Automatic annotation (TrEMBL):
The chain crosses the membrane at residues 75-97, 124-142, 149-165, 177-198, 615-636, 666-686, 698-716, 723-740, 752-774. Residues 9-432 form the Putative ER transporter 6TM N-terminal domain. It comes from Zygosaccharomyces mellis. Residues 1165-1177 have a biased composition (Acidic residues). Residues 1067-1113, 1156-1177 are annotated as: Disordered. GO terms for cellular component: membrane. Residues 1076-1092 have a biased composition (Polar residues). The keyword Transmembrane helix applies. The keyword Transmembrane applies. InterPro entries: ArAE_2_N, Brefeldin_A-sensitivity_4, IVT-Associated, Memb_transporter_dom. It comes from the Eukaryota. This is Uncharacterized protein.
Amino acid sequence: MDARAKILQRWWLRHFPIDRVLAQKITKCTVNSTVAFIFCLIPKVRDRLGSQPAMLPLISVMVHPGRRVSGTIQAIIFCLTGLVLGLSYALFGRFLAQRCLGHNWKHLTEDEQYADHFPRYESALAILAVFETFMLFFHGWMRSVSHHYFAMVFPLFLVVHFAFLDPLDDPISTTTKAYTVPFYLGIAMSLFWNLVLFPEFGSTYLGNVTIDTMNLIHNAIDDSVNFFVSIDLIQNQSLYGKSPESLSKLLKSKPTIHNKVSTCSAVLHECIYEISYSYVSPTQLEPIIKMFKPFSMYINGLINACQLEFTLLSRDTNREGDILLMKTDKEITYANFERFDRVLRKLRPSIYNLHKILSESVYLTKILLAHAYDVNLNRAESPEVFRDSDEIMKYRNKKDLPTDFRIDEHKEGLQNTLLSFDKELKEELLNSEIDFLRPKDEMFLLSSFLMNFKETTNLVISMLDHSKEVHTIRSTREAKGWLRGKSVWFTFLHNFQSFKIWIKGSYPKATPVNENEGLKGSVFTEENQNTAGLAARRPSVAEKDLLSQQLDGEKSMQDLERTPTLPLPATLSSVPRSAESNLIKTEKKTFSERLTYYFTACLIRINRFCKRSKAHFRFGFQVAIALILASFPMFIPKTRDWYIKYHGAWVGFVCILCMEPSVGGTFWSFFLRMLGVVIGSSWAYLSYAAGHHQSDPYLETVITAIGAAPGFYYFLGTPYVRAAIIGIISIYIVLLAAAIPSSISDSILTAWAKRCFAVGYGGGVSLIVQLIMFPSKARDELNQEIAFVCGSISELQLLYASGLEGESLRVSLSEQKYKRMTKISQSARGALSRADAYKSLARQEPRLKGEYTELGKVFTQIIFVLRQILDRIDNAALLRRQYGSAIIEEFNSVVYPYRRQVIASLCCLMRAMQEAFLNKTPLPQFLPSPRIAQRRLINMVRRTLRENYNGEFVKNGLIPKFNETEDNDSNDEREVIIDVTKKKENKHTQPAAPMHEFALKERFLSWNASTVAFEEIIEYVEELCNLTKILVGINEFKYGFLSRPLYEDWAAEAATGFEDFVKGKNIRKQRDPSSNRENNTLESFGSSNGSSLFDEGQDPVALHHDEGHQENPPVNLARIASHQIGSNNDELPTSFRNRAFSIGFINDQLGGLSNLSKKKTLGDTDSDIENDEDTSDEELPLALKKILTNNKKANI
């Protein structure tokens, strides 16, 4: 029996996970709602609640106590704001309607008004209809602006909608009592149970979540450094006592840390609604929490370095990419691991010593903060990766804490260790060979790890300073005693910034909150990250205010005041500008000109506002139209009484809850609402029957509580918030409709049927309106979000690359540009979060073009790739902000054309993919290759360093000669280098500095680290381009001169081994990947600028491959260039596949192929031509013929 019980327990916890905190929240919510239901059953209490006592359990569910204290106070403030606005608006509307009825509105009922004063009664209902329409539009507008406002506008809708259904002969006092007493009593009860029963203060939770975040950061640092240093060693050789963690675990820790950092920021902002009583104010943690964001960026850099090292180690066994079986050529695989390992072997002891002291300092910081904020010391994890981890002092309770932590000694020891580490690093690299210090992949990888590791250490030093300050405050106050030491900290609206947070919401842009998470009150928890919830709409100002290239095309208001003038010719340019300005000042504008100016400016502002608020207008009209269609009988005199008797308010209530900004969201919400209403109403019927028709209210209450508890579990612990909340409300509403005496005497069965009718009618109307009136599909929103991220990445590249015109810069990345990059990056991450939600909603939309499963997998990969690109950009920008870039600040006049080519290629690719996603059009035939441009940049930097820091190259005139086919940019830059060298010789400057001294500059190491990040960005962009081909296709040529690449590497293979090349043997695969590709630097330096991205062998691939998928068959150039292909049902190889059909093409029912594996080219083969024996090379590319001809002439 015990074994069966354990099996049942494991099964239950696996399908219905629950912990202590969630159980406490469910208990609080169930008790609160049950007490509210009991109050409605007591006649004396019910008489005090007014004419709408059923609002009490409803508001107890909406403002539930299952939040933290600060979250409950926040929800109460929003609810009260909506109630006050809604009640004022409803009373004003009813006042005007009553004035239309005349002076006898108090004495005549609505039936009498209908019989005796029909025109007046009709006019009064028309006024209510107008007020209802404006309220509904405002409700939809605010929900579209931000889901944060749902908690405010939904109570507003409840008050106005239900008040307009009340009899018009009710005085203002009756209406006010009906919509204030139950609401305010429900809010007070929620706050009471939140404080009395299992209170969960936000300040206490802030300390816990801060220590948990630091544990994750600490473990990530230890695991990444251990992995990088010891991955190629066996356990006996490693300096660490713990074997390295798997790369998979390291990569999974990146999003976990990001979510925890977002949680810390949200909880800190949430604490402004709370009054805390403690030794230290919660705001003292703000500087430390702000450090978590750069911490996560540097940890991403460490983990990315580990990933590159793993790729370098496994290059022989894992040469291909893992994204949809696409071939990805990793630059790091061409590095020399033996050379890299020789230097790493020397640096291992220094890295280990610094890492050990850093880890101990992080543990000390956690202990200090845990003690200051009364967090359980066992929550702070101690380091476990070192061999002597047992010797590290561990603190398990307050009795173990010393009187003096010697924080200054720890800080000084960490600083001295960092200085010695820099010294040893310089010595070791100075003793290494000169080749290692040149710009190569080995140096890029090592620089990436070292720079991120050093910056992590600097952040730990800063964190020690802040933790010392917090510990000093705690110790000083604690010495005064319990009564005098503790203080009441009131942080609500203490400055304008907190007021803005209260108005706009306390959630960061990178992880926007949706309505489900706002209703639950437990945002940014781990269980909410993968839920198929609702998407928060992108802020309307994001695309206009963040992407500067869109703002440049708009005219400002000041431009309207300037009279357009033509430039003066050269002969008149000598006229003094002062005289001209004085002449302009003397001109007086007439009244008509000023009026024209203001009228034009007003039109421009209106136009901008309408364009910016297009989505808000659309959803506002959708909500207004849907609710008017669902509730129009309440404004028609003949049907108003019938509508009230059928509980028409329920119809509007369900309809507005089903309305979502997208078709998929509305469909999913309607399904969940319908399920919740049916289950909740059925449980209400069961409770009423168990109570023997109100004869046993005690049993009825118990049965109701038993049904509400699982509803609150699904409400607070699962993503099915919509079904749970309306299910719980339906239990109380249906039961009270039959139990409370009213003018509408319904039986329980009739109330159940009317409730089900309301959800079918209201939800159906909302779905139909969403499908017909301005439909917004989740698939289209998904494409727009991804396109927005592509445009944001392009803008980030432009901001990151300074001095593209060759100007001299002292600061490679200004503070203003970095802040702008941070803002754009946050908006792009928020767009990716919304894209995740839209991807889930797209599966739930009705679709006529086949299944969405295959496309969903592609979008999942696209979102993953975009996140990786943003991680690399953020890390590179942070390093450049800290250290600058030696290449930009010293050699920009030489290398700027090559830097410009790299950025231009990346921006061109991202903009092409952005337009492809927006317009669903295939990619163009030719796109520039950023990989080739990046190689040329690195080669140019290497050559510049050699010519400027190796004096023998300049003195002896050993500047190598280039081929005549070299591009003009290369010749121009070589002339620039020679000119600079001549100027130095003419000025008799000192000889060039040693190469080692320059290479060891931190700015140069920063450039190395950013270069390896850029190489990864380029690789991910190429993968993103391949994924885009699968979705939208590509315009390529099937055969002919334009179907093949033309750059020299490809042609060199054909020229050196032409016979094997024509027969299709893959020469590239036979080469050693670790061979140094820089040996032929000068020959490949003049590569053509027009090389295409598709020359790299990156071709669109199908989603489905056979399990026995092998390498594509060799390409026979002679056959491809001729007209014989296809004569015997021969197919082109995969590398020459031209276009995959666009999004949503219908599956081929005859062939059984995937819709994404079909191809359509610009020209079809002629099946009448049958000459398979032709193997002539008459139609080979002209580039090959030219190379062969030159070789023959040379041999002659």
